[in-house]
Design a protein that fits this description.
single chain, alpha/beta, 7-stranded parallel sheet, 6-stranded parallel sheet, about 20% strand
Length: about 525
């Protein structure tokens, strides 16, 4: 049965069930037959659907989508969130799922002024570069606070400031859980970005987050990889959002249902287990980039990783004194200082003898892994320094088939690598110095390029990105810029503005405008 839309309402033949459940529905006669006029809103839509009526989500007709025209995938995703109290969003990287969540919340708030606040728990790298940026650009009428700071009382101060949306890192929920619980009645929605971090229901992070989520009326979880390692990874995520789907099963019972024990310490997925688990993940939606035909052919996104303590120490020394004296590192001029600050940002540094000093860079490596894992196709990783190239190859080879291209690789060997990349299953990842792959190549088996750090040449950046934006490309493309400092952010901005990077940066150093690069 399909009600008839009429001026933000729905007309349907008189139904006593509807009249009882919606006493505010207006009764009237039409051509001698009793009818009902029902507001086409979120709650009413859910009731009618539960009664068997086919009702399209009200957001589709009653919402003025802010910003650029949304993709169909974003409309459908936002619709799912608004018409279900619990939902799973498995859209791939680059499909605009962050904005889809914000569309949904914005619509709910416009539809019902009593709608409370939204808490977003997300990876630290996305708090500002993804979530805050999307809100600021496309939802300026929504107030936002970041609940992240090295000092706990600063987090609490931010929580006590009035806002519509509060964004916190996953581990941060535990830090101010008591304060969040005290304010839980002010929240009406939770978004768990990268839901897969909650796959283990025995961790303190899961338990503390679950205490809060269980108290909130509406919750949605986002991840492109709900079962990255095995089908049993679904357990904690299901228990967090839709525990009824587990029918009271313990983790042991659930794992026995979807996996097979082959040795004392090894379990493998049963045949059909992934499909079975996806049936439990309901309601859900899943779009890949190549399925989103209305998306732009190439997107560029920034992702931010926190510096390690040692990186931060080196960066400050180099920024303030042009040297790291304990390690025989000295910048001889402004251009060299810029170069060394970039090296530190990427987790390495060359001394006077051109020996590489490696710095801890776990956060950045994790961000890189996540991006590769979420890609729908093969991946190219570009890094402007040879020392970081070797490090990336060693690290990524633990999970994927990896090959590398640098000035030390012969032309014959490069040709073999490129041929295998295009026509064989392996390698899945190429790690390369961009100057060695920036002209003429077609590598359209990849649709994702990840920049470990920015090059200092516009031509290099554009030519390297052009390896995947060529004829024969079957997927929409994604360029990911990794960064940890404002210096890197400035360079990426200059690249996208097609500016003369060296000139602008040197002028900045000449003005001594270098105190805000961290």
């Amino acid at each position: 049965m399909k009600p008839i839309p009429y001026k933000e309402h729905l007309i349907l033949p008189f139904d006593n069930r509807v009249a009882v459940m919606m006493p505010h529905a207006q009764q009237f006669m039409h051509e001698g037959k009793p009818c009902l006029l029902v507001p086409h809103k979120v709650d009413e839509t859910q009731v009618l659907r539960n009664l068997g009526y086919e009702v399209h989500p009200p957001i589709m007709s009653a919402y003025k989508w802010p910003g650029p025209e949304p993709f169909d995938a974003q409309r459908i995703t936002a619709s799912l969130i608004t018409t279900n109290k619990r939902s799973f969003i498995f859209n791939g990287i680059g499909t605009g799922k962050t904005r889809a969540v914000l569309y949904a919340y914005d619509f709910l708030k416009q539809s019902d002024p009593s709608t409370g606040k939204l808490l977003v728990a997300a990876p630290l790298s996305t708090l500002r570069q993804t979530w805050q940026r999307e809100i600021t650009l496309y939802f300026p009428h929504l107030r936002v606070e970041i609940l992240h700071h090295a000092l706990r009382h600063k987090r609490i101060e931010a929580l006590n400031r009035d806002a519509d949306i509060y964004i916190i890192n996953h581990d941060g929920v535990e830090v101010i859980l008591d304060e969040l619980m005290a304010k839980r009645k002010e929240f009406s929605m939770v978004c768990l970005d990268e839901l897969s971090v909650y796959k283990n229901a025995n961790t303190d992070m899961w338990k503390k987050t679950n205490r809060f989520v269980a108290e909130i009326d509406r919750a949605t979880g986002l991840t492109a990889t709900p079962m990255s390692l095995c089908a049993a990874d679904a357990y904690g995520q299901l228990k967090m959002l839709t525990p009824q789907a587990l029918q009271g099963k313990s983790f042991t019972r659930f794992r026995e249902r979807v996996m097979l024990k082959v040795t004392t310490f090894k379990w493998v997925n049963k045949r059909g287990a992934v499909d079975e688990v996806f049936k439990l993940f309901q309601p859900s939606v899943r779009f890949k980039r190549d399925e989103c035909y209305d998306m732009p052919p190439c997107q560029i996104v920034d992702q931010e990783a926190m510096l390690s303590d040692e990186q931060r120490k080196f960066f400050i020394q180099m920024q303030n004194g042009c040297a790291v004296p304990d390690h025989d590192v000295l910048a001889v001029n402004a251009a060299d200082q810029i170069n060394k600050l970039l090296q530190i940002s990427l987790g390495m540094l060359y001394d006077k003898q051109h020996n590489a000093i490696h710095l801890p860079v776990a956060n950045r490596l994790q961000l890189l892994e996540d991006a590769i894992e979420q890609s729908d196709s093969k991946v190219i990783v570009f890094t402007p320094y040879k020392a970081s190239l070797a490090r990336l190859v060693k690290h990524l080879s633990q999970r994927w088939s990896v090959d590398f291209v640098s000035g030390d690789v012969s032309p014959t060997r490069r040709e073999q690598i490129f041929t295998q990349f295009m026509h064989a299953p392996d390698p899945h990842v190429i790690v390369a110095h961009p100057d060695c792959m920036s002209h003429g190549l077609t590598l359209t088996e990849a649709s994702t390029i990840i920049w470990w750090g920015p090059p200092q040449s516009l031509e290099t950046y554009e030519q390297a990105n052009g390896r995947i934006t060529r004829a024969g490309q079957r997927f929409s493309q994604l360029i990911i810029n990794l960064m940890s400092t404002k210096l890197e952010q400035k360079i990426y901005r200059l690249l996208q503005q097609r500016a003369n990077i060296q000139q602008v940066l040197l002028e900045m150093f000449e003005r001594q405008d270098i105190n805000d690069l961290l």
